[in-house]
Amino acid sequence: MGSDNSSFVEERSPGDVTVTNFCIDKYEVTNAQFSEFVKSTRYATVAERPLSQEQFPNLPDEQRLPGSLVFEMVKPGVKQVSFLSWWHWTTGANWQHPFGPDSAIASKSNYPVVHIAYEDALAYAKWSGKSLPSEAQWEYAARGGLDGATYAWGNQYSEHRANTWQGIFPFFNTKADGHLGIAPVGSFVPNGYGLYDMTGNVWEWTSDFFQIGRDRKSHQINPIALNQSFDPKKPDESKLHVIKGGSYLCAPNYCSRYRPAARESESPDTGTTHIGFRLVKNLVSSTLSINPKSKI
To answer: What is the C-alpha to C-alpha distance for residues 285 and 233, in angstroms, rounded to an integer?
Structure first.
């Protein structure tokens, strides 16, 4: 796991990690698949529910309306923006209306479902009889049999091997890969295991809590970090999960997380226009829980 050649300290290798046999979805879960789940269960995603008055006691009612975070490209002519200003809380944005109430997914049944919070992914997994992958499972699958390669296809970046951002983020996208935003699943060649979009397109949830160090996973079988997270960039949040794979918003000048070793932390109650998921079927049930305070 990881990469000792990375400039991101959170990606440093914990040493060899073993995963036992598992199956993993060939594609990210699509709008069509998630729609079947909702029809069957009448499930409402986190983005479709009002913000909790208990959790946000100081917000007026009009600011607790259901919604989610939507990416908006910087307007032409603007040359400087503040960090993360391209994200906008949008009332009415959810998996069925990814860019707000006036948008729809009617013609995008084969696109990855987005605006999925962690509990939404868990609910779908339970309904389907599968599980969210651990970070170790996800990374093993993403590498496609390549040992230590930088990308899922080798060591040379290619704008035609994954749905990423070409140009200078967030000012302009040359669309050299043929897609300005999210692409339908299966639009790019698969990795060595026949898996599509393991990097790029949308970030994917894993079951691990986020921790900077991964030494406790070294030489373990099916390790998974549970119970507590810590990210120094978000010191007040303790339930952050690992997301993997990067997205269509990752550019060489920003993020550059379209690599199997890359990882980021994400709040479990946050869905956005670039986070989805895929699932696994475990063939061996034993996992090793990694307590961040324990010594292994």
So the answer is: 34
